[in-house]
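Escalated from tier 1: nicotinamide-adenine-dinucleotide holo job.
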Amino acid sequence: MDELEVLADWIRNSGSIVFFGGAGTSTESGIPDFRSAAGLYQAQQGSPYPPEVMLSRSFFMAKPDIFFDFYRSKMLHPEAKPGGAHLLLAELERQGKLKAVVTQNIDGLHQLAGSRAVLELHGSVHRNHCMDCGRFYGLEFVLQSADRVPRCSDCGGIVKPDVVLYEEELDHDTLVGAVAAIAGADLLLIGGTSLTVQPAASLVTYFRGKHCVLLNAEPTPYDHRADLRIKGRIGEAMAAVQRML
Ligand code: NAD
Ligand code: ZN
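Tier 2 regenerated the structure:
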């Protein structure tokens, strides 16, 4: 059996699938990841502020105008559509086989594909709150704000995306939910992540189930934990698996 047939077989025989993913899940939808050759880290080389500096809490507080220039131009992709991975995962949830998607992504594409049980470890571009009065704003408000720094219509406070920046903590309930989901899975699919951003990456160590599959373009520090490794484009692989099911 080829690798994709093995994966299809394990999916058929599983009643409790969990997916753990990252930016590579969305590159085929046109959203650059951080660490690929075509990723943001390469594209920003030569910039006075590397992405991990611009995406830190202290930078946000000190230079919100530069933060929002970067954030709007590089991190927001309102036109992006779900790809093969998002679509298969949503379908498996509809069938009752998939229990949760745990994602490091902030792009909302899993929900756009129809997934409901999505644990967003690093938040979402679709949620934004005034730092002073707490008023909620959607993505449109940030995209359309006339000022470089979006300001609350009620009180003039800065409207901050609910995106976990470097130096910030992960949401406690999301983290606990992710551990419980992974610990309760019988099949763990990991994909499109370099597994280098902590504490998110270490969550995969809570898996105790039958099979762990890693779908990634490049090797990761956790490759030895996988029973099956599928190298290449996750969207294409998942679309091919969906046709086999
Ligand atoms: P990363 O950039 O560190 O790693 C992406 C991994 O995916 C790489 O190993 C790469 O080889 C692989 N990859 C890229 N395209 C792929 C494809 N089509 N098929 C299979 N594998 C592919 O991403 P990360 O591990 O998620 O960590 C980066 C952090 O950046 C996350 O915390 C996330 O919040 C944030 N981020 C999110 C988005 C998004 O929401 N779409 C985009 C960029 C960065
Ligand atoms: Zn306000």
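The domain at 126-163 is CATH 3.30.1600.10 (SIR2/SIRT2 'Small Domain').
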